[in-house]
Each structure stands twice: as C-alpha cells, then as structure tokens.
Design goal:
With about 525 residues, the protein is α/β, with parallel strands linked by helices. The protein has three domains: about 1-140 and about 285-315, Rossmann fold (3-Layer(aba) Sandwich), CATH 3.40.50; about 155-270, no CATH class; about 325-520, P-loop containing nucleotide triphosphate hydrolases (Rossmann fold), CATH 3.40.50. It has helices at about 1-15, 25-40, 60-65, 75-95, 120-130, 150-155, 160-170, 175-190, 205-225, 225-230, 240-245, 275-280, 300-305, 340-355, 370-385, 405-410, 435-445, 450-475, 485, 490-500, and strands spanning about 40-45, 70-75, 100-105, 115-120, 140-145, 160, 200, 250-260, 265-270, 285-290, 315, 325-330, 365, 390, 400-405, 420-425, 475-480, 500-505. The chain has a seven-stranded parallel sheet with strand order 3-4-2-5-10-1-11. A seven-stranded parallel sheet has the order 14-15-13-16-17-12-18. The chain has a four-stranded antiparallel sheet with strand order 6-9-8-7, with helices on both faces. Strand 8 and strand 9 form a beta hairpin. It is globular and about 75 Å long.
Amino acid sequence: MIEVEVHQQLRAFLRQQGESDWPHHLTMARLVARALRLGRSALIQTSAFSGYHERYRLSYLVPILMWDGPVILVVPETTQQRLLMVEIPQLRQWIPISKSIQTGDRLPSPDFQGVLLVTPESWLNDRLHHQGRFPDEIPVILDGADDLEAWVREQLTVHLQPSDWDRLMLACPDQRAAIRDARVQLTKTIFQHPANPYDCYLIEPCEQTILRDLFLTLQHSAAAHPTYAAVPFSHLPDPWPAFWRSLQRPEAMLWADLSRAHGSFSLYCGPADVASDLEPVWSRQPIVLVGGALDLDADATVYRQRLGLGDLTCLKFSPDRQEELIHLYLPEKLPMPNTPQFQAALLQEMHTLLSLSAGVQGLTVLLVGDTPLKAQVGSILASEFGSRVQVERTCLDDNAILVTGWEFWRQHQHVLPSPHLLAIATLPIPSLEHPLVAGRVAYYKKLRQDWFRLYLLPEALSELQRAIAPVRDCQGVVALLDSRVVHRSYGHQVLSALTPLARINYLDLSLFPRSDYSIFE
C-alpha cells in the first residue's frame, strides 16, 4: 500500500537529512497517503507555527509525489515559491519519480497526472463560482486552513468603488438622473453616521432601500429590451450584477468604508456566514485540510460547523512539551480591561517587565489591540526607554521594544526575530464596537446561536496561538495582562490554547538571563 511506501521513503529521507525537529512527519504522511488511496477527506491540526511552519510540509509532499494520480496543492504564492525552490527539489533528488510539477489557475490538460500548485484565490474562485477550471474528484491538499474562512469571505464579498458609479451612468445614460440621485442620497445618509475609529459602517435598512429602489429602476428600464430582459442586470457593467446577486442573499451583510477627506464611500456586500456556500464544495473532491490550530478539540467541532464541513477524519498533533514550552506570567490582581484603573496598571506592569528584561539582548514585543491605547503606551514608554521603543516598525535594533497591534504583528512576525518577551495587554476578542463584528454577532443572535462560543472566542484563540508562536522558538516569556483569563469561565480555554506552558504568578529575574544583575542589587 502507498502508506507503507510513503513511510519507508520519508523515514529514510529524514534519517539522511537529520530532520527531527518536528516529530509527527511519519504519522501525518501516512494519513495523507491513506486519504489519497481511499478518497476520504481529512482535517489535520499540526500545532505548528513560526519556526515549525515550513517543516511539516514534507509530510504531505512525499505522499503526493508518490501518488500515481493527479493532485491539486492549494497554497499561497509565497509558499509555492519555497516548495518549488527548496522542498520539492530536495525530495525529487531522493525519490526517483518523474512526476510533473506545475503551477497555474486551471488543470493543464484533461490527462494531467502531476501535481498542480494553485493559489487559494484561484481554487476558491473556481469552486465557489462553478467555473469548471478544476475537474471534480481530483484530490486536493489545502495548506493554510487557519485562513480559509477569511479567504472565502474575500471571494464572496463584492466591492463597489466610487468609480463604479461613473461607469454605471455611462452604461445606462437614460437613467443617469436616478443613479446620480441614489448616489447623492447614500452619500448624505452614510456621512451622517457618527464617526468611529474604523471609518466603517453597516448600511441601515433605509439606505438599503435606496439601493434596492435603484436596482428596480434599472431592471424596469432593461425589461423593454428583449436582449437584456432574459438575464436580469446583464446590461450593467461589472461588478454591479454580482453586487445585486450578493444583496439578495438572506445572510448578506452590507457595509460602507468612508474616505472623509475625499467625501466618498465604497460599498461592500458579503456573507455573514460561509458554511452554506462551502457545504457543496466539500463533496466535489476528497480534500485534506492542513492548519496550525483550527480548534481546541481534536474533532474540530466548531471549526467544521463554521466551514460547513461534514464527517471527515480529524487529527490533532500536540506541541512538544520540551521544545515548545513558554513561561506564562499571569498576574491575578490587575483591574479588568473595561475599568478606568486598567491603563495605569497596564503601564506599571509593562514598565516592570521592561526593567527586568533590560539586560537581555533581544526583541521585546508589546501587543496592544486598542488603537488609542497603543499610541499612548508607545509615547509613554519612549519617554523613558528612548529610541528602543518603536511603534509598528520592522527596522529594529537588537534590543528593541516593539509596540504593535495584532494585525501588524500577524503580518510581520515571520520576518522579525523571535521575541524573548511578549506582553499582551488584552485578549484579541473581536470588539463589538466594530460594525462588521456587530453585524456577524447580530446574525448569530438572529439564529439563536451562541455567538461568543461560535465566533468571538474561536477568533481570539486562533489569533492568540499565532501571536505567541515565535516565543516558543526561544522558550521565552509571555505576559498576559488580561485578568479575564483568571476571572471568566472561558479562561481555562485560553490556557488550553497556550499549552504547553509553565505558569508563573510573579516576576523572577531568572526568567531573563543576563551576564550582570548588579543594576538590581
């Protein structure tokens, strides 16, 4: 069987390469080989981020190279380049197989028997919009399942830019007045929304009525033309037809991004839930989904519910308790984040942490999700620690202190040194003040579903596990300064997400080794 052959080849390759940092290669490789042989889908949680984020890929590359049929490998373009330049050439020197390896946005030919590397955007665009560029039944390996829901939302969200209104008036000259009036009305009502830090606003029912009335006017105008009457809105320029179709979805969310400086807005329409769109996709081919930490449970119940996944083989690897241990500083008596006393206490804790680690050469990261608070923390700390303190920059000194938000850290943590200290001000629970978060919560409430367990908490745990991954490389310290972990019922789930850890309730100089302690004596 292919499982035995894969096991033997990969074991010999690992021995020859001396590759032993990720201990689950053989188990994962056998599962992928079994999925290919039986045509049964699987979901694998590698618990591997940061320094381990490239190593586990050998576990699926060997089976797909040895499989005697075509395989589609869905990975982002940056990952494709690494696979093509490093891992695949190494394996092809070891495994005597002349299997074709190609990249593209469609199957090269009906009789293609090789490995096709495809970006998530291309593959999802084909699956969700039935374009027929990838035949059904061909096995698919999708690496990066942590980002799958975000990729799907991006594919299903339609964007109307300010210039699209001008194109619409050019395409429908008889309705220029109606189009212009609708645009003016929307501009007036949208700009009356109270300002928020996100410059993003859910479209109210009265504003949706303006849009729907405009579409009815355009539809009536086209009804008299026999060519256009058969296909609604076929006379409109892109992306207006797709926007109308998206607006008809029962779970559609409609929002606007404002540019107050230019007096313009962009409209977006996307789904509050993607499960119904993805359910028919999974039955069209066997698929192996590979992610770092998709769910706290091995069977990934919540993740599968959110992605519309049915019955499939689930496997979750545990982190190495020796190599990936972090020291977790979790003070118990800090004020709650929503109290006036929190900011002063937060600054005091961060000052103490920075003082204790002052003699360590290495990066210190302070994660502050609240934008105004992030700026205040950066300013106050810079007044004492000087140019060591930088706010969301990648050009840093050896002992820099980086103050950053969650999004910046997620985007740049792989190109920055592993921090010896990562201090987290608050849990990355999506804020209900953000209109898009509020819109998705309203959708769950409408269905009488547990919006915190199904949406807010999984988002926070996924973000948290990614954020601390670089600290595991150097077995550093994570300071979690959000006392909700101690006092809220979901705190044990947060601690489970951070495992393996050694919890400490006090600061100890031995956690920050240095050559000279005299400055504290």
